[in-house]
Write a structure and sequence with these properties.
about 100 residues; Immunoglobulin-like; 5-stranded antiparallel β-sheet; about 10% helix
Length: about 100
């Protein structure tokens, strides 16, 4: 089975809170600040998203092609170094950009 590996940056933003990991709309698990999680997934097309309260990330589509494939993603808060006004902006206008998900190569 392919493996989904997610690394969360160690940062001050959302330090005490876990991000929910959603794969194809279903909760796969949670990831804490500075943590790495691995999950076996089925081959095929998938959609990955992170969520925290009513905010989260954009949905990232990807394909798990082979059984031995490791799919690496990194997640971090979009509020890195930002003040309270930036948090309010993302909360109100861009709640799906609170968390950034990047595919690692």
């Amino acid at each position: 089975m392919p493996t989904l590996r997610i690394r969360r940056a160690k940062e001050f933003a959302d330090y005490l809170r876990s991000y929910a990991i959603l794969l194809d709309g279903d909760k796969l698990g949670e990831i804490k600040n500075g943590e790495t999680q691995e999950f076996p997934i089925s081959p095929g097309q998938h959609q990955l998203r992170m969520k925290i309260d009513w905010c989260g990330s954009m949905t990232i589509p990807f394909v798990a092609a082979t059984d031995s494939e490791i799919l690496d993603f990194s997640v971090r808060s979009n509020l890195k170094g930002a003040g309270g006004l930036a948090a309010l902006y993302y909360l109100i206008f861009k709640p799906n950009e609170w968390i950034v998900v990047d595919r690692e190569s």
